[in-house]
Amino acid sequence: MNTQLSQAAELWRAAQCTIVLTGAGISVPSGIPDFRSPGGLWSRFDPNQVASSWALDQHPRAVWEFLLDALRMFNAASPNPAHTALVQLEQLGFLEAVITQNIDGLHSQAGSRNVIEFHGNCRRFYCNGCRREYPANQALALTESDLPWLCGLCTRVIRPSLVFFGEAIPRKAMTAAQQLASRADLAVIVGTSGDVAPANAIPYQVKHMGGRVLEINLGPTSYGNLADVRLDLPAQECLPALADMLNHH
Q1: Rounded CA gap, 121 and 19, in Å?
Q2: Domain region containing 24
Q3: Are residues 180 and 226 located together in one domain of the fold?
Q4: Which residues of 51-70 are buried (b: 16+ CB within 10 A; e: fewer)?
């Protein structure tokens, strides 16, 4: 294990511009189960019925029952050592940006400054009609009898600022991620199986441009043999160790 960690640290140290792509796996130690895993939200809810633009339009109450469940889970979660290690690596100058597929906001909460939320986040809300913004603490104060949450101005449904199934990735996030991928010479994959497009393409783009790839994941993923170095270790143990090695070299 130490040999692999040393190889990973060498790879990271040699890079001029490193980006990290994170997925659900990095938030599991914070108490947020991967949506797709047993016990995750998709084992209790059908995503098409509660997390699609169609559902928001047709079944807003069902969407809000799901959202309230998710929001309470996110609100109870705190950043874990994997999140804080990425903050440290950014402060040390070893990390350009975090591109995350997660909607839990934990990277920003931990203190990461350059975070691209590919799928938006669950901490900002706005009316789907008039676009008026609403604070997250109002969402958390909702009860079952308040659902669906409707705009006080135009009575349309209020929604979180995240990408529902059937919606496009926000152009700003897409552009920023592509610009970073074109400059990066190291992509670090953390806690994502690589199944969800288009975010999963980012490490391939870096590799295609002559960069290197480091993968930190438990068990096999869709990335196969893409990585130059692969660590089959928990991110919350491995990232702090790497940050320590890079800091003390």
Answers
A1: 20
A2: 1-32+79-119+168-249
A3: yes
A4: bbeebbeebbebbbbbbbeb
> Quick one: pLDDT at residue 51?
94
Cβ atoms < 10 Å from Cβ of 39: 9
Distance CA 142, CA 152 (A): 14
| Tokens (6 digits) for 124 | 């900002």
| Contact criterion met (CB below 8 Å) for 76 and 122 | no
Q: Are residues 87 and 16 in the same domain?
A: yes
Please state, rounded to an integer, the average pLDDT across all residues of the chain.
95
Distances (CA, A) of 120 to 59, 123, 169, 184: 21, 9, 8, 22
Shared domain for 22 and 88, answered yes or no, is yes
**In one letter, which amino acid is 50?**
V
The count of residues in the chain is 249
| Number of structural domains the chain divides into | 2
Regarding pTM above 0.70, the answer is yes
| Catalytic residue numbers, as ranges | 119
Average pLDDT estimate for 202-225: 97
User: How does pLDDT run across 77-119, given as a tens digit for each residue?
Assistant: 999 999 999 999 999 999 999 999 999 999 999 999 999 999 9
We report the CATH number of the domain holding residue 148 as 3.30.1600.10
